[in-house]
Task: structure prediction
Amino acid sequence: MPDIDDVTRSALPIEEEADLDPVLDRIGDARCVLLGEASHGTHEYHAWRAALTRRLIAERAFSFVAVDGDWPDCRRVHRSVTGAPGADGDPRAALDALRRWPAWTWANHETVAFCRWLRGHNAALPPERRVGFYGLDVYSLRDSLRAVMVHLAEHRPEHLAAAREAYRCFEPYGDDPRGYARLVPEDCAEEVLALLTRLRRAAGGRAAPADESAADLAERFDARLNAEAAAGAERYYRAMIGGGERSWNARDTHMADTLERLLEFHGPRSRAVVWAHNTHVGDARGTDMGRAGLVNLGRLVRGRHGAADTVLVGFAGGYGEVVAGPRWGAPMELMRVPPPRSDSVEALLSCAGLHRALFVFPAAPGARWLTATRVQRAIGAVYDPDHELDNYVPTRLGERYDVLCWFARTSALDPLHLEASPRGGPETLATGV
Result:
Protein backbone atom coordinates (compact mmCIF):
# COMPACT_ATOMS: atom_id res chain seq x y z
CA MET A 1 0.00 0.00 0.00
CA PRO A 2 1.40 3.47 -0.90
CA ASP A 3 0.64 5.00 2.50
CA ILE A 4 2.39 2.20 4.36
CA ASP A 5 5.40 2.45 2.05
CA ASP A 6 5.58 6.21 2.73
CA VAL A 7 5.34 5.60 6.47
CA THR A 8 8.13 3.03 6.56
CA ARG A 9 10.40 5.15 4.36
CA SER A 10 10.06 8.18 6.63
CA ALA A 11 10.29 6.32 9.97
CA LEU A 12 13.34 7.01 12.15
CA PRO A 13 14.44 4.97 15.20
CA ILE A 14 13.61 6.04 18.74
CA GLU A 15 15.32 3.65 21.12
CA GLU A 16 17.74 5.88 23.04
CA GLU A 17 18.17 9.60 23.71
CA ALA A 18 20.73 9.97 20.91
CA ASP A 19 17.94 9.05 18.47
CA LEU A 20 16.37 12.43 19.25
CA ASP A 21 19.06 14.24 17.20
CA PRO A 22 16.70 14.74 14.21
CA VAL A 23 14.16 16.42 16.51
CA LEU A 24 16.79 18.81 17.84
CA ASP A 25 17.80 19.56 14.25
CA ARG A 26 14.16 20.30 13.40
CA ILE A 27 13.82 22.54 16.45
CA GLY A 28 16.91 24.55 15.58
CA ASP A 29 16.55 28.04 17.01
CA ALA A 30 12.80 27.85 17.60
CA ARG A 31 11.72 29.71 20.72
CA CYS A 32 8.72 27.57 21.71
CA VAL A 33 8.67 23.76 21.68
CA LEU A 34 5.36 22.15 22.66
CA LEU A 35 5.49 18.45 23.61
CA GLY A 36 2.24 16.52 23.70
CA GLU A 37 0.87 13.23 24.97
CA ALA A 38 -1.93 11.03 23.67
CA SER A 39 -2.96 10.28 27.27
CA HIS A 40 -2.11 11.67 30.70
CA GLY A 41 -1.51 8.20 32.14
CA THR A 42 1.10 6.63 29.83
CA HIS A 43 4.72 6.04 30.85
CA GLU A 44 6.28 6.29 27.38
CA TYR A 45 4.88 9.75 26.66
CA HIS A 46 6.11 11.17 29.96
CA ALA A 47 9.50 9.46 29.77
CA TRP A 48 10.34 10.48 26.20
CA ARG A 49 8.98 13.98 26.67
CA ALA A 50 11.31 14.32 29.65
CA ALA A 51 14.23 12.91 27.67
CA LEU A 52 13.79 15.46 24.91
CA THR A 53 13.38 18.26 27.44
CA ARG A 54 16.61 17.31 29.21
CA ARG A 55 18.49 17.63 25.93
CA LEU A 56 16.84 20.96 25.09
CA ILE A 57 17.83 22.35 28.48
CA ALA A 58 21.35 20.91 28.58
CA GLU A 59 22.28 21.46 24.91
CA ARG A 60 20.08 24.34 23.73
CA ALA A 61 19.76 26.44 26.90
CA PHE A 62 15.97 26.46 27.12
CA SER A 63 14.81 28.74 29.92
CA PHE A 64 11.84 26.99 31.54
CA VAL A 65 9.30 24.19 31.39
CA ALA A 66 5.59 25.09 31.48
CA VAL A 67 2.95 22.39 31.96
CA ASP A 68 -0.83 22.18 31.90
CA GLY A 69 -0.91 22.21 35.71
CA ASP A 70 -2.04 24.83 38.22
CA TRP A 71 0.15 27.86 38.91
CA PRO A 72 0.26 27.57 42.75
CA ASP A 73 0.99 23.82 42.72
CA CYS A 74 3.71 24.13 40.10
CA ARG A 75 5.17 27.14 41.86
CA ARG A 76 6.12 24.88 44.76
CA VAL A 77 7.80 22.50 42.30
CA HIS A 78 9.55 25.47 40.69
CA ARG A 79 10.96 26.59 44.02
CA SER A 80 12.28 23.10 44.65
CA VAL A 81 13.98 22.61 41.28
CA THR A 82 15.56 26.08 41.40
CA GLY A 83 16.80 25.65 44.96
CA ALA A 84 14.88 28.60 46.38
CA PRO A 85 15.53 29.30 50.10
CA GLY A 86 13.14 27.34 52.29
CA ALA A 87 11.88 25.19 49.41
CA ASP A 88 11.52 21.41 49.45
CA GLY A 89 14.95 19.84 49.16
CA ASP A 90 13.57 16.96 47.10
CA PRO A 91 11.08 17.77 44.30
CA ARG A 92 9.19 14.62 45.23
CA ALA A 93 7.84 16.37 48.32
CA ALA A 94 6.46 19.20 46.18
CA LEU A 95 4.90 16.80 43.68
CA ASP A 96 3.58 14.53 46.44
CA ALA A 97 1.68 17.53 47.83
CA LEU A 98 -0.47 17.84 44.69
CA ARG A 99 -4.06 17.04 45.59
CA ARG A 100 -6.49 18.34 42.97
CA TRP A 101 -7.87 15.50 40.86
CA PRO A 102 -6.29 14.15 38.70
CA ALA A 103 -3.19 14.69 40.83
CA TRP A 104 -1.44 11.67 39.31
CA THR A 105 -0.97 13.49 35.98
CA TRP A 106 2.00 15.28 37.60
CA ALA A 107 2.35 13.44 40.93
CA ASN A 108 4.13 10.47 39.40
CA HIS A 109 7.56 8.89 39.46
CA GLU A 110 8.34 9.94 35.89
CA THR A 111 7.92 13.62 36.75
CA VAL A 112 9.86 13.15 40.00
CA ALA A 113 12.80 11.72 38.05
CA PHE A 114 12.81 14.66 35.64
CA CYS A 115 12.50 17.26 38.40
CA ARG A 116 15.32 15.67 40.38
CA TRP A 117 17.47 15.88 37.26
CA LEU A 118 16.46 19.50 36.78
CA ARG A 119 17.34 20.37 40.37
CA GLY A 120 20.77 18.80 39.89
CA HIS A 121 21.25 20.66 36.60
CA ASN A 122 20.27 23.96 38.19
CA ALA A 123 22.58 23.47 41.17
CA ALA A 124 25.58 24.15 38.92
CA LEU A 125 24.10 27.40 37.57
CA PRO A 126 23.82 30.90 39.05
CA PRO A 127 20.28 31.69 40.27
CA GLU A 128 19.45 33.95 37.34
CA ARG A 129 20.12 31.15 34.83
CA ARG A 130 18.27 28.35 36.58
CA VAL A 131 15.54 26.63 34.60
CA GLY A 132 12.05 27.03 36.03
CA PHE A 133 8.97 24.81 36.19
CA TYR A 134 5.60 26.57 35.89
CA GLY A 135 1.89 25.83 35.58
CA LEU A 136 -0.22 27.27 32.77
CA ASP A 137 -3.67 26.01 33.65
CA VAL A 138 -6.76 27.74 34.90
CA TYR A 139 -8.28 25.78 37.79
CA SER A 140 -6.66 27.42 40.83
CA LEU A 141 -9.15 30.20 41.54
CA ARG A 142 -9.35 29.99 45.33
CA ASP A 143 -5.76 28.82 45.85
CA SER A 144 -4.51 31.71 43.72
CA LEU A 145 -6.67 34.23 45.57
CA ARG A 146 -5.33 32.94 48.89
CA ALA A 147 -1.75 33.30 47.61
CA VAL A 148 -2.45 36.85 46.46
CA MET A 149 -3.79 37.79 49.89
CA VAL A 150 -0.71 36.40 51.63
CA HIS A 151 1.56 38.41 49.33
CA LEU A 152 -0.43 41.63 49.69
CA ALA A 153 -0.66 41.36 53.47
CA GLU A 154 3.13 41.45 53.64
CA HIS A 155 4.07 43.70 50.73
CA ARG A 156 1.12 45.79 49.49
CA PRO A 157 -1.46 46.11 52.27
CA GLU A 158 -3.16 48.99 50.43
CA HIS A 159 -4.50 46.40 47.93
CA LEU A 160 -5.52 43.81 50.49
CA ALA A 161 -9.12 45.01 50.74
CA ALA A 162 -9.67 44.31 47.03
CA ALA A 163 -8.28 40.79 47.45
CA ARG A 164 -10.52 40.15 50.44
CA GLU A 165 -13.57 41.29 48.48
CA ALA A 166 -12.73 38.92 45.62
CA TYR A 167 -12.10 36.01 47.98
CA ARG A 168 -15.23 36.71 50.05
CA CYS A 169 -17.35 36.65 46.92
CA PHE A 170 -16.57 32.96 46.41
CA GLU A 171 -16.96 31.83 50.04
CA PRO A 172 -20.63 30.70 49.67
CA TYR A 173 -19.61 28.23 46.97
CA GLY A 174 -17.01 26.28 48.91
CA ASP A 175 -13.95 24.84 47.21
CA ASP A 176 -15.78 24.17 43.94
CA PRO A 177 -16.56 27.41 42.07
CA ARG A 178 -18.81 25.48 39.67
CA GLY A 179 -21.61 26.38 42.08
CA TYR A 180 -20.78 30.03 41.50
CA ALA A 181 -20.85 29.51 37.75
CA ARG A 182 -24.28 27.90 37.86
CA LEU A 183 -25.97 30.27 40.29
CA VAL A 184 -24.61 33.78 39.87
CA PRO A 185 -22.51 33.93 36.70
CA GLU A 186 -21.81 37.66 36.92
CA ASP A 187 -21.64 38.37 40.66
CA CYS A 188 -17.91 37.94 41.28
CA ALA A 189 -16.46 39.13 37.98
CA GLU A 190 -16.20 42.76 39.09
CA GLU A 191 -14.32 41.90 42.28
CA VAL A 192 -11.80 39.66 40.49
CA LEU A 193 -11.17 42.17 37.71
CA ALA A 194 -10.71 45.00 40.23
CA LEU A 195 -8.11 42.91 42.05
CA LEU A 196 -6.36 42.00 38.82
CA THR A 197 -6.16 45.65 37.73
CA ARG A 198 -4.46 46.57 41.00
CA LEU A 199 -2.04 43.65 40.80
CA ARG A 200 -1.11 44.42 37.20
CA ARG A 201 -0.25 47.96 38.17
CA ALA A 202 1.66 46.89 41.26
CA ALA A 203 3.46 43.85 39.81
CA GLY A 204 3.97 45.26 36.31
CA GLY A 205 6.47 43.70 33.95
CA ARG A 206 10.09 42.80 34.57
CA ALA A 207 11.18 46.37 35.26
CA ALA A 208 12.06 46.65 38.93
CA PRO A 209 13.36 49.29 41.36
CA ALA A 210 17.13 49.45 41.47
CA ASP A 211 17.24 48.09 45.00
CA GLU A 212 14.85 45.15 44.37
CA SER A 213 16.39 41.69 44.64
CA ALA A 214 15.80 38.88 42.16
CA ALA A 215 13.81 37.06 44.86
CA ASP A 216 11.55 40.08 45.39
CA LEU A 217 11.05 40.41 41.64
CA ALA A 218 10.08 36.74 41.42
CA GLU A 219 7.66 37.17 44.31
CA ARG A 220 5.99 40.15 42.63
CA PHE A 221 5.68 38.16 39.43
CA ASP A 222 4.18 35.21 41.33
CA ALA A 223 1.54 37.47 42.89
CA ARG A 224 0.61 38.89 39.52
CA LEU A 225 0.39 35.45 37.88
CA ASN A 226 -1.80 34.20 40.71
CA ALA A 227 -4.10 37.15 40.10
CA GLU A 228 -4.12 36.37 36.38
CA ALA A 229 -4.91 32.73 37.18
CA ALA A 230 -7.83 33.78 39.39
CA ALA A 231 -9.22 36.02 36.65
CA GLY A 232 -8.75 33.30 34.03
CA ALA A 233 -10.44 30.75 36.26
CA GLU A 234 -13.38 33.08 36.88
CA ARG A 235 -13.84 33.47 33.10
CA TYR A 236 -13.50 29.72 32.58
CA TYR A 237 -16.04 28.69 35.22
CA ARG A 238 -18.52 31.26 33.94
CA ALA A 239 -18.03 30.05 30.35
CA MET A 240 -18.71 26.45 31.40
CA ILE A 241 -22.38 27.29 31.79
CA GLY A 242 -22.67 28.34 28.16
CA GLY A 243 -21.03 25.06 27.09
CA GLY A 244 -19.70 24.54 23.59
CA GLU A 245 -16.41 26.11 22.65
CA ARG A 246 -16.48 29.04 25.09
CA SER A 247 -14.96 27.27 28.10
CA TRP A 248 -12.36 25.38 26.04
CA ASN A 249 -11.27 28.60 24.32
CA ALA A 250 -11.13 30.48 27.62
CA ARG A 251 -8.86 27.81 29.09
CA ASP A 252 -6.44 27.50 26.17
CA THR A 253 -6.27 31.26 25.67
CA HIS A 254 -5.36 31.63 29.33
CA MET A 255 -2.59 29.03 28.94
CA ALA A 256 -1.23 30.82 25.86
CA ASP A 257 -1.36 34.18 27.65
CA THR A 258 0.46 32.75 30.68
CA LEU A 259 3.16 31.38 28.38
CA GLU A 260 3.61 34.86 26.90
CA ARG A 261 3.95 36.38 30.38
CA LEU A 262 6.63 33.81 31.24
CA LEU A 263 8.57 34.53 28.06
CA GLU A 264 8.41 38.25 28.77
CA PHE A 265 9.52 37.74 32.37
CA HIS A 266 12.49 35.60 31.33
CA GLY A 267 13.61 38.10 28.72
CA PRO A 268 13.74 38.49 24.93
CA ARG A 269 16.14 35.57 24.44
CA SER A 270 14.20 33.12 26.58
CA ARG A 271 13.01 29.78 25.19
CA ALA A 272 10.13 27.63 26.44
CA VAL A 273 9.31 23.93 26.58
CA VAL A 274 5.60 23.21 27.11
CA TRP A 275 4.11 19.89 28.26
CA ALA A 276 0.40 19.34 27.60
CA HIS A 277 -2.03 16.90 26.02
CA ASN A 278 -2.02 16.49 22.24
CA THR A 279 -5.41 18.20 22.10
CA HIS A 280 -3.76 21.36 23.44
CA VAL A 281 -0.38 21.02 21.71
CA GLY A 282 -1.36 19.99 18.17
CA ASP A 283 -2.54 22.88 15.98
CA ALA A 284 -6.36 22.86 16.09
CA ARG A 285 -6.44 23.78 12.40
CA GLY A 286 -5.15 20.30 11.62
CA THR A 287 -8.21 18.73 13.26
CA ASP A 288 -11.99 19.13 13.30
CA MET A 289 -11.58 21.38 16.33
CA GLY A 290 -10.99 24.37 14.10
CA ARG A 291 -14.21 23.84 12.19
CA ALA A 292 -16.05 23.64 15.51
CA GLY A 293 -14.80 27.09 16.51
CA LEU A 294 -12.15 25.85 18.93
CA VAL A 295 -8.71 27.34 19.33
CA ASN A 296 -5.93 25.69 21.28
CA LEU A 297 -2.49 26.34 22.69
CA GLY A 298 -0.62 25.03 19.63
CA ARG A 299 -2.61 27.17 17.22
CA LEU A 300 -2.26 30.28 19.38
CA VAL A 301 1.49 29.88 19.87
CA ARG A 302 2.03 29.27 16.15
CA GLY A 303 -0.07 32.33 15.39
CA ARG A 304 1.82 34.55 17.83
CA HIS A 305 5.38 33.37 17.16
CA GLY A 306 5.17 31.96 13.65
CA ALA A 307 5.72 28.46 12.35
CA ALA A 308 9.50 28.93 12.18
CA ASP A 309 9.70 29.77 15.88
CA THR A 310 7.25 27.08 17.05
CA VAL A 311 7.69 23.30 16.97
CA LEU A 312 4.77 21.02 17.87
CA VAL A 313 5.58 17.42 18.86
CA GLY A 314 2.76 14.87 19.10
CA PHE A 315 2.70 11.36 20.55
CA ALA A 316 0.70 8.28 19.55
CA GLY A 317 0.38 4.72 20.84
CA GLY A 318 -1.20 1.50 19.69
CA TYR A 319 -2.32 -0.62 22.65
CA GLY A 320 -1.29 -1.47 26.20
CA GLU A 321 -2.20 0.00 29.59
CA VAL A 322 -3.03 3.44 30.94
CA VAL A 323 -3.89 5.10 34.24
CA ALA A 324 -7.19 7.01 34.15
CA GLY A 325 -10.46 7.46 36.00
CA PRO A 326 -13.76 5.95 34.79
CA ARG A 327 -15.46 9.28 35.58
CA TRP A 328 -14.41 12.70 36.83
CA GLY A 329 -13.16 12.55 40.42
CA ALA A 330 -13.24 8.74 40.62
CA PRO A 331 -10.29 6.70 41.93
CA MET A 332 -7.68 6.08 39.28
CA GLU A 333 -7.59 2.66 37.67
CA LEU A 334 -5.14 0.65 35.62
CA MET A 335 -7.01 0.21 32.34
CA ARG A 336 -6.45 -1.75 29.17
CA VAL A 337 -6.02 0.25 25.97
CA PRO A 338 -7.41 -1.87 23.12
CA PRO A 339 -6.03 -2.00 19.58
CA PRO A 340 -6.93 1.16 17.64
CA ARG A 341 -9.78 1.84 15.26
CA SER A 342 -9.20 0.65 11.70
CA ASP A 343 -9.49 4.19 10.27
CA SER A 344 -6.99 5.72 12.71
CA VAL A 345 -3.46 7.05 12.55
CA GLU A 346 -2.53 4.35 15.04
CA ALA A 347 -3.91 1.57 12.83
CA LEU A 348 -1.86 2.82 9.88
CA LEU A 349 1.34 2.90 11.95
CA SER A 350 0.56 -0.54 13.36
CA CYS A 351 0.06 -1.96 9.86
CA ALA A 352 3.49 -0.61 8.94
CA GLY A 353 4.93 -3.01 11.52
CA LEU A 354 6.75 -0.31 13.50
CA HIS A 355 7.43 -1.06 17.16
CA ARG A 356 8.66 2.46 17.85
CA ALA A 357 9.26 5.24 15.38
CA LEU A 358 10.04 8.92 15.09
CA PHE A 359 8.68 11.05 12.26
CA VAL A 360 9.94 14.54 11.42
CA PHE A 361 7.51 16.10 8.97
CA PRO A 362 8.61 18.27 6.05
CA ALA A 363 7.63 21.94 6.06
CA ALA A 364 5.31 21.34 3.11
CA PRO A 365 3.93 17.79 3.53
CA GLY A 366 3.23 16.08 0.24
CA ALA A 367 2.78 12.45 1.24
CA ARG A 368 -0.89 11.48 1.34
CA TRP A 369 -0.67 9.95 4.82
CA LEU A 370 0.30 13.39 6.15
CA THR A 371 -2.46 15.31 4.38
CA ALA A 372 -5.34 12.80 4.54
CA THR A 373 -7.78 12.94 7.46
CA ARG A 374 -7.57 10.02 9.87
CA VAL A 375 -8.71 9.88 13.45
CA GLN A 376 -6.12 9.93 16.24
CA ARG A 377 -6.73 8.55 19.72
CA ALA A 378 -7.02 11.01 22.62
CA ILE A 379 -7.30 9.56 26.14
CA GLY A 380 -7.83 12.08 28.91
CA ALA A 381 -7.95 11.84 32.68
CA VAL A 382 -11.36 10.21 32.18
CA TYR A 383 -11.47 7.08 30.04
CA ASP A 384 -13.90 4.26 29.40
CA PRO A 385 -12.44 1.53 27.16
CA ASP A 386 -15.99 0.27 26.51
CA HIS A 387 -16.63 3.55 24.65
CA GLU A 388 -13.28 3.54 22.88
CA LEU A 389 -14.74 4.83 19.61
CA ASP A 390 -15.50 8.18 21.25
CA ASN A 391 -11.84 8.90 22.06
CA TYR A 392 -10.62 9.98 18.65
CA VAL A 393 -9.95 13.32 16.96
CA PRO A 394 -10.06 13.66 13.13
CA THR A 395 -6.51 14.70 12.27
CA ARG A 396 -4.30 15.74 9.36
CA LEU A 397 -0.92 14.88 10.80
CA GLY A 398 1.19 17.20 8.66
CA GLU A 399 -0.89 20.19 9.70
CA ARG A 400 -1.32 19.27 13.33
CA TYR A 401 2.31 18.50 14.24
CA ASP A 402 5.89 19.03 13.14
CA VAL A 403 7.08 15.78 14.76
CA LEU A 404 5.34 12.57 15.84
CA CYS A 405 6.62 9.91 18.26
CA TRP A 406 5.02 6.45 17.92
CA PHE A 407 4.95 3.51 20.34
CA ALA A 408 3.09 0.38 19.27
CA ARG A 409 2.76 -0.89 22.85
CA THR A 410 2.50 1.43 25.82
CA SER A 411 2.64 0.95 29.59
CA ALA A 412 0.98 2.72 32.50
CA LEU A 413 2.29 5.75 34.33
CA ASP A 414 3.65 5.15 37.86
CA PRO A 415 1.66 7.45 40.20
CA LEU A 416 2.79 8.63 43.62
CA HIS A 417 -0.79 8.57 44.95
CA LEU A 418 -2.67 5.31 44.98
CA GLU A 419 -6.01 6.80 46.04
CA ALA A 420 -8.36 9.39 44.63
CA SER A 421 -7.60 12.90 45.76
CA PRO A 422 -10.04 14.39 48.28
CA ARG A 423 -10.18 17.61 46.30
CA GLY A 424 -12.17 17.60 43.10
CA GLY A 425 -11.83 19.85 40.11
CA PRO A 426 -13.95 21.14 37.30
CA GLU A 427 -14.90 18.92 34.42
CA THR A 428 -13.37 19.71 31.05
CA LEU A 429 -14.74 18.50 27.74
CA ALA A 430 -15.90 14.91 27.33
CA THR A 431 -12.35 13.63 26.74
CA GLY A 432 -11.27 14.93 30.14
CA VAL A 433 -8.11 16.56 28.82
